[in-house]
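Section 3.1: Structural characterization of target chains.
Under the original work plan, the team committed to producing a structural model for every single-chain target entering the pipeline before any wet-lab resources were allocated. The record below documents one such target. The sequence was received from the expression subgroup and is listed exactly as submitted; it comprises 77 residues.
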Amino acid sequence: MQVLVRDNNVDQALRVLKKKLQREGIFREMRMREAYEKPSVKKARQKSEAISRQRKLARKQLQREGLLPAAKKKPRV
């Protein structure tokens, strides 16, 4: 991963780096690896994540087909 520092603006480069790491899921993976996760807990977590992914995909599909109203967008402040 590479982030360019422009005009010696390290703060902006750091923000960009954090955003890229967040998008890649690095922070989440680091948090998961901090402590041992029992195989039974890992299996249950993966199953619940898979269910939520499937629900999200089904919801998006129904929205595309027009059977569900589109998600409301948050107004920018």
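The two ends are 31 Å apart (CA to CA).
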